Amino acid sequence: MVDNEDLLQRISERYKKMSKGQKLIADYILNNYDKAAFMTASKIGQKVGVSESTVVRFANMLGYEGYPQLQKALQEVIRNKLTTVQRIEMTSELDESTLLKTVSKMDINNIRLTVEEIDKEVFNRVVERIFSARSIYVLGLRSAAPLAQFMGYYLSFIFEKVRVVTSGVNDILEQLIHIQPQDLLIGISFPRYARRTVEAMAFAKNKGAETVAITDSLLSPLTSYADHILLARSDMASFVDSLVAPLSLINALIVAVGIRKKTDISSDFQELERIWDEYQVYIGKDRS
Amino acid sequence: MVDNEDLLQRISERYKKMSKGQKLIADYILNNYDKAAFMTASKIGQKVGVSESTVVRFANMLGYEGYPQLQKALQEVIRNKLTTVQRIEMTSELDESTLLKTVSKMDINNIRLTVEEIDKEVFNRVVERIFSARSIYVLGLRSAAPLAQFMGYYLSFIFEKVRVVTSGVNDILEQLIHIQPQDLLIGISFPRYARRTVEAMAFAKNKGAETVAITDSLLSPLTSYADHILLARSDMASFVDSLVAPLSLINALIVAVGIRKKTDISSDFQELERIWDEYQVYIGKDRS
Amino acid sequence: MVDNEDLLQRISERYKKMSKGQKLIADYILNNYDKAAFMTASKIGQKVGVSESTVVRFANMLGYEGYPQLQKALQEVIRNKLTTVQRIEMTSELDESTLLKTVSKMDINNIRLTVEEIDKEVFNRVVERIFSARSIYVLGLRSAAPLAQFMGYYLSFIFEKVRVVTSGVNDILEQLIHIQPQDLLIGISFPRYARRTVEAMAFAKNKGAETVAITDSLLSPLTSYADHILLARSDMASFVDSLVAPLSLINALIVAVGIRKKTDISSDFQELERIWDEYQVYIGKDRS
Amino acid sequence: MVDNEDLLQRISERYKKMSKGQKLIADYILNNYDKAAFMTASKIGQKVGVSESTVVRFANMLGYEGYPQLQKALQEVIRNKLTTVQRIEMTSELDESTLLKTVSKMDINNIRLTVEEIDKEVFNRVVERIFSARSIYVLGLRSAAPLAQFMGYYLSFIFEKVRVVTSGVNDILEQLIHIQPQDLLIGISFPRYARRTVEAMAFAKNKGAETVAITDSLLSPLTSYADHILLARSDMASFVDSLVAPLSLINALIVAVGIRKKTDISSDFQELERIWDEYQVYIGKDRS
């Protein structure tokens, strides 16, 4: 896999050795990567006055199989480069009257792509590790904190060994200070990736723990420290991170755990049910 | 609107005055409401040996326009009656190999129905109230806490006046003790409805505050205390509440607020951007 | 031990069989227990026109060794009976100009009495149990939450097995759902005792766990469910619970644990020190 | 005021110009500041073979009025220089059998000195500002978080305008993003001072807000950004920060606020009392 972080830098470094046509492409991309990321090879060719195949070879030269791979890499660069202010600018182009439809369409599309692209073997392996781990740390910071909290909320009914790490009086790494090789850290992060989440993944890996990254792309900084990678789409043309597809994936993970542990959790929940009833935690249960 | 809470009781009370055919239907429903809730009128007719139109008239007699309304009411009854243990039983019938697809299909369907059914005027009015309110309390407990937290996370970048109520050292009502008539309480709850959320809505209403319910149905106990009702689907054949469609709706709400406040939040976020940069909160922003 | 909860009721029940002098005392106490609680036997005698020894016999008749025991019981009744509104009334009699001195004097006195009265064997046994327990739950709600948080903050540096229970998305009892016989629950509560703390102690005891109560008196409702009782004074003529002496006691507990685990925690903290240094958690460490 | 942070460095810088006797003292201090900090002038003189008055002049030369001031400065240096590992070493010299007495004596002494040294005018001004401020932020991180939480717990019954900042899904500075000139930030920090608390004080000051530091010494890094300084002693020969005297001071602050707002809070608490009663928050209130 080519490291996209330095894509723009790599283009700069190879600039000297480029053909004249390649230099034109390079100039355009370096100055307009935000636009280039959404143009086809032929469009870029037109723009700078070279052939489509020159653009394709430009991609090859940088180590990509074809232009689509280069384009995707550019999009990744953008995603991390966009400040929230730029995202708000983008948001303002959304039409308020069709907003709900637009947002829901993006969310539905994100879920659909997530299911299509998920690696089922990894999914099953993660479910297994959730059972076999000594301790499970579910970590999500900032906008990913609600996802970690949701996952922890359900898993802690089923297992004693769950610890949710979202914030707290102790710093994040302090909450991981006792992590061990038999433990599992499930790190959740989506663009813009919180630095401390990456640090926590690195810390856990370094201590020998097994790590799962729930993130949006192989280019996410979490993947460098992840034994298992579960990808969920979070594309959203807005300053809000859409965590709808990630939440759907986490739902499926919890349900998969629940199915395997069925008999055990039934008895756990029978006790909870008794408690909920005694303390009237829920409303609307028939008492007749 | 017919009160479904007592549907089974109402059937019992009218039993004496029913025709012989109606009694057969009543017997079947009272003993098998969990199955009946998912059968068509003709199927029930077959089961107990009466005509489809007898089943329809049975629904009319109970105050429903047609059989679909009775069926929906039965489903509501079930939803609140099902203990988590029963939900786990249901979960176990899910096929593990197709689990991800099943869950994602339900989630996509929930989002789709949510957008179709949403009342846009209410949606817009809620956006307006978020701007005009003196203070905004975003309240969600138990599995709805992550939703409240997510909504609060973004709204508190934009407004000072936001308070997230999910748990805390002070009890829930204590956190609402200063609520006033010009304030807005956004209460989020899905089956199984947390009792304390309903109490909080009632408390806020009683203090003269304006209230928004983000919930799953007009039959939700929150609606009794809500000035504005935003419905999002959360059907999920499992012990996990699916909050995917509610999250998508909340996304849309935040984006709608962001669009209207564009210029202001741009400057807020410029300052945040500076802070994030100085303290390296995020990873991957280009520093070259 | 005589149950003080029903002291006033017991007085009422025995009223019929009392001598004429005793009836006078009973009348006075039932109507003015808030004043009587702070009067000497001779003062009460004067007030109602009986001898001091009649007052003492009155105490004996109710099952107390002497008048001081009855007086203490009356003070306990008051402490739990006083609403916060009544406490505020009391507060208003404090002199603002000497406030700091008054508060600090009460706090110093509370610490002094706490050390004098502490049962050292119990103290040592609790330290031992902290080491030997499988899991340690440190529970404090409402105004006692900061104490639990403080204790948990330090203990969780030393042990992995610590869980702080102060509030949270999961209800209190849900956070204790996996508690077992080898576990230790340290419950912290001072007047006005939070009901849910008592429920949690009862729940843990019922599940076979070992329990420690850090509370103010043997009459505290926590003691019924406690294997070990550590008393700390919290008397404060105000609507604020003074948790200064309890905090001092908790300090001593943490230090005692630290002394015994010296070598181990040195290495834990060496790692923490490295982390704190790398992430500049603290200020002012010499880097030359 | 002399800046102690660089005391050791200043000694090094002036070394060249020192007399022979002063050089002997300087050598000893630079190599043994942890011991020197607890030696008298005459003891140091003996140690290095110079007169007591040479030691005193050494202090004068560095800008201190006398030796006691230099000694105090050295102790400050130590306090911040001591890693937790070194503190644990110190702790191990405490005698376990007299531990409780030792800890409580230090705590009592800390409270006594705190009251003696407090500036009453500052105390009263802070109470006034708590009333007049538009919003009040109570901030304490790490081991100071329980203090902030305790203070916030009570103040938020009395005022709506209180926000407790101890941790959270939003970063600390993000929670202060809306702070304004009419607002009050009460920052609480004791050695080892959390870096983020100092950053938060600086941030608030920079935004024009009024700031209060509750800290242990004029040499605390918080004081640079504080409009009002309230000092409370926290000396403790251990890895645990003793927050007993600071808690006593905070108690007094809350009570002082309560006394002034008496009538208003009575009615607030009457409503709370009704809520507490209805939801049985507390135990032991007489219901007869």
From TrEMBL, chains A, B, C, D:
SUPFAM superfamilies: Homeodomain-like (SSF46689), SIS domain (SSF53697). It comes from Caldicoprobacter faecalis. It holds the Pfam family SIS. Transmembrane segments: none annotated. PANTHER family: GLUCOKINASE, RPIR-FAMILY TRANSCRIPTIONAL REGULATOR. This is Transcriptional regulator, RpiR family. InterPro entries: Homeodomain-like_sf, HTH_RpiR, RpiR-like, RpiR-like_SIS, SIS_dom, SIS_dom_sf, WH-like_DNA-bd_sf. One of its GO terms (biological process) is carbohydrate derivative metabolic process. The keyword DNA-binding applies. Residues 5-81 form the HTH rpiR-type domain. The keyword Phosphoprotein does not apply. Coiled coil: none annotated. GO terms for molecular function: carbohydrate derivative binding; DNA binding; DNA-binding transcription factor activity. Keywords: DNA-binding, Transcription, Transcription regulation. Residues 126-264 form the SIS domain.
